[in-house]
Design goal:
With 228 residues, this protein is an alpha/beta fold. It has a single domain (9-227), classed as Rossmann fold (3-Layer(aba) Sandwich), CATH 3.40.50.1820. Helix content is 31%, strand content 21%. The protein has helices at residues 9-13, 55-63, 77-80, 89-103, 116-126, 175-182, 210-227; strands at 20-25, 28-33, 40-45, 69-74, 108-114, 133-137, 162-167, 188-193. Strands 1-2-4-3-5-6-7-8 form an eight-stranded mixed beta sheet, with helices on both faces.
Length: 228
């Protein structure tokens, strides 16, 4: 595994799927799971409170290469520094652009992520960056309890096929709100994760685990990309 000396210790020490490489782009750490002959590359960014090794991203690294899809994961500069305070929108967008430029080519490209990571990817797509698909997990349509502060004004400018995949207990977007958000995009699909919250956790009484939700969400992504 190629390892950037500047990469966080947590990333260096954690176990890695076969074929995974760790390097850098745009001043941040990047994990790649490359597949020979892949039709798609999915570039993924984590949510605000997570980092390069977020558990859902790890699940994607286990699932996507087996389906013939290459995966690129990265973290934002504040996550690289171990800070909890997100970077400015301009920095978040610049990081996304730098990673895309350095890590894609030769395949169709899908971008997305969880919560903040996906929201910034959607802004990038709305600005006309040439991508072929957009996958948004736990999209934060508004802050919890504040529907009067929508984060959706840019979505009508998204021209590529878009997947919205969120839990039915997500306080950042109820199922009805998510449907209304998806309707802003010309070519959108909505998949609801029954009983999951914003972090994909489920109640014990549901008979499911968070791992079950990760598996479902990863499977939906594979099926959706394969059908495009």
């Amino acid at each position: 595994m190629a390892v950037n000396a500047a990469a966080p210790a947590a990333a260096r020490e954690a176990g890695s799927p076969v074929g995974e490489t760790l390097d850098s782009a745009g001043g941040v750490s990047v994990l790649r799971n490359a597949v020979d002959g892949a039709a798609w590359t999915f570039v993924y960014a984590p949510g605000a409170g997570s980092n390069l090794r977020d558990p859902f991203g790890q699940r994607l690294a286990e699932r996507l290469p087996d389906a013939g899809i290459s995966l690129v994961r990265f973290q934002f500069p504040y996550q690289e520094a171990g800070s909890r305070r997100p970077d400015s929108p301009a920095t978040l967008l610049a990081t996304w652009r730098a990673v895309l430029e350095a890590c894609t080519g030769g395949t169709r490209t899908a971008i997305g992520g969880r919560s903040l990571g996906g929201r910034i990817a959607s802004v990038l797509a709305s600005e006309g960056v040439p991508v072929d698909a957009l996958a948004l997990f736990a999209y934060p349509a508004h802050p919890p309890g504040k529907p009067e502060q929508p984060r959706t004004a840019h979505l009508p400018r998204v021209a590529c096929p878009t997947l919205f995949c969120s839990g039915t207990r997500d306080p950042f977007a109820s199922p009805d709100e998510l449907a209304a958000v998806a309707a802003l995009v010309t070519d959108a699909r909505v998949h609801l994760l029954d009983g999951a919250d914003h972090g994909f956790a489920v109640l014990k009484s549901s008979g499911r685990s968070r791992e079950d939700v990760w598996v479902e969400a990863a499977g939906v992504l594979v099926e959706w990309l394969s059908g495009l």
